[in-house]
Amino acid sequence: MTTMESLIGLVNRIQRACTMLGDYGGGADGALPTLWEALPSVAVVGGQSSGKSSVLESVVGRDFLPRGSGRVTLRSIGIVTRRPLVLQLHKTEEGKPEYAEFLHLPKRIFTDFSLVRKEIQDETDRLTGKTKQISPVPIHLSIYSPFGHWRWFGWPVVARLTNLGNLQWMKFMAAAKVVDLASACTVEGWRRRQLLAMAGVVNLTLIDLPGLTKVAVEGQPDNIVQDIENMVRSYVEKNIIEPEPNINGLDTYHTCRSALVTITVFPFSFMPNCIILAITPANQDIATSDAIKLAREVDPTGERTFGVLTKLDLMDKGTHALDVLEGKAYKLQHPWVGIVNRSQADINKNVDMIIARRKEKEYFANSLDYSHLASKMGSEYLAKLLSKHLESVIRARIPSITSLINKTIDELESEMDNLGRPIAVDAGAQLYTILELCRAFDKIFKEHLDGGRPGGDRIYGVFDHQLPAALRKLPFDRHLSLQNVKKVVSEADGYQPHLIAPEQGYRRLIESSLNYFRGPAEASVDAVHFVLKDLVRKSIGETQELKRFPSLQAELAAACYQALERFREDSRKTAIRLVDMEASYLTVDFFRKLPQDIEKTGNPSTITADRYSEGHFRRIASNVSSYIVMVSEMLKNTLPKATVHCQVREAKRSLLNHFYTQIGRKEGKQLYQLLDEDPALMERRVQCAKRLELYKNARDEIEAVSWAR
């Protein structure tokens, strides 16, 4: 069966890994998934000068938090908290030394807690400067202390503890199992040696947050009040994604297995995941408490709020706070706990925290108002209460956390696959990478042309719609009008009119008509060219591997466009050649039918008489028009073939051939420049890798722990 220590220690280790790898929770759209917000924690919430940080010191049993100026003024009283302090208490084995350790200074151990205070202040100033600004980036502090260990104190402390005689000292030392009684059996011996007193911590993680305030003090921006509240809310409102049961049994979900537990992953909902330690001074009206007001908003049922009442000893004589402590004035699901912190005079005199604990116990035990609650009052009771509750919350949340971790690992690994691996420094490997990226692009481009992806059908649309429509719009009606035909034929005859058929007039009319086909032919070539360019652009955008390399994208696009320009020029020449071929050699069979028609009339003199009539010229226009229609039908078939052969076929076969030749001639530095990634993408890969490492470490930590189910 897993102990409380292993469960809280598990969350402690994961929290430390979160901070080390940059996971502080929160984030906007597109931000990386956060594990921090899925971990149960205890957030200490209270107004400035409510005594919340003093409560932390009482729980730890050490004076280690920064304070304001040494002068006792209204402004200086209170603890300066400008960054969240994640305080992790670790109970170690008896006999081991007590020490503190910061996450940002992993190799340094602090045994002098005055230096801990200084380091907290220095680390806060490192991010916020010497101003009164705040920062959401937490400071991680771990304190390792054996529960029930013996701490050394000088004689002045002994004198304040008790007035025991020599015999009583001997009994005390015997109970304490001190072996060397010879040198410690008298009060004078203790003066020379020092006294050992009880101290220690329980396993617990607390987050000390900046105190809520209503007014910005001198040196703070006007929005500091809202900024502090937003930061506090980001902690107390944090949620864990909780799987919902599949009530209807209609859907099937995958199963996450580990050495600890098997979980079926159902649809997710959000569950509150932060225990709120609401600190309120007893000499203040509970209705005006900043902590209670905030807790009521985020936890209206009071299920995750622990109320702590401080400064009970500072209440006016004849008044008490029993209505609050007994849950009558403001009821919570958990009992209220009263705390008596050190007074400012005690702080100025450096009264030890152990002495303060003893005085706190004596206060509740001897109080006429609170003696019946003494066993459930004080900082030691609060620490044990929170530790036990935190352990139960962690135990309940572990399945959901495991499910979330497995799901997020899959998502991050998928994103890492899309982002790709870091680029090798070897020139040969870089060349291979570029060629592989080009092949990936070429594959997608061909899929567009062959129908595997949309876009290739637009080329068929050019041939099936645009080209026929352009041919139909050619101005043959105007060109073959009676007036123009008469003009062309007359000019072709010159000084001697034609004898039978105006062959020169026919040729001039046909050749000038065929020239109109050049426009649609070139337009078809251009239309296919623009479709191919657009498919290149789309293919580059759809090649996921290329997204990392904007320089290579630009170089590849330029090379493709150059190749397509060459293909277009070849295709244009071929298309124009097809039109010119029709003008170079007319289809004789079509015109040989004309004399036969004359012979069938049986009256040549009639034909000769009509040679210069309107009917004659209309017949010429009709014959030329019929021939042009025949040629148009042929070009509708041959122009697409020429265009596909010269542009589409070549784009599929040799779009990147010239680019490959150029790449092969580049040196290592030039290749590296092509593989110069987008800085934002490089940063995203680094962050994804860190976050993936975090989640995998968390999974390993959870699988290494077993607990009773």
UniProtKB/TrEMBL annotation:
PROSITE patterns: G_DYNAMIN_2 (PS51718), GED (PS51388). It is found in: Cytoplasm, Cytoskeleton, Phragmoplast. Coiled coil: none annotated. Residues 36-399 form the Dynamin-type G domain. Its main location: cytoplasm. GO terms for biological process: cell division. One of its GO terms (cellular component) is phragmoplast. CDD domains: DLP_1. The keyword Transport does not apply. SUPFAM superfamilies: P-loop containing nucleoside triphosphate hydrolases. Residues 617-709 form the GED domain. It comes from the Eukaryota. InterPro entries: Dynamin, Dynamin_GTPase, Dynamin_N, Dynamin_stalk, G_DYNAMIN_dom, GED, GED_dom, P-loop_NTPase. GO terms for molecular function: GTP binding; GTPase activity; microtubule binding. Keywords: Cell cycle, Cell division, GTP-binding, Nucleotide-binding. PANTHER family: DYNAMIN, PROTEIN 1C, PUTATIVE, EXPRESSED-RELATED. This is Dynamin-related protein 1E. It comes from Zingiber officinale (Ginger). The lineage of its organism: Eukaryota, Viridiplantae, Streptophyta, Embryophyta, Tracheophyta.
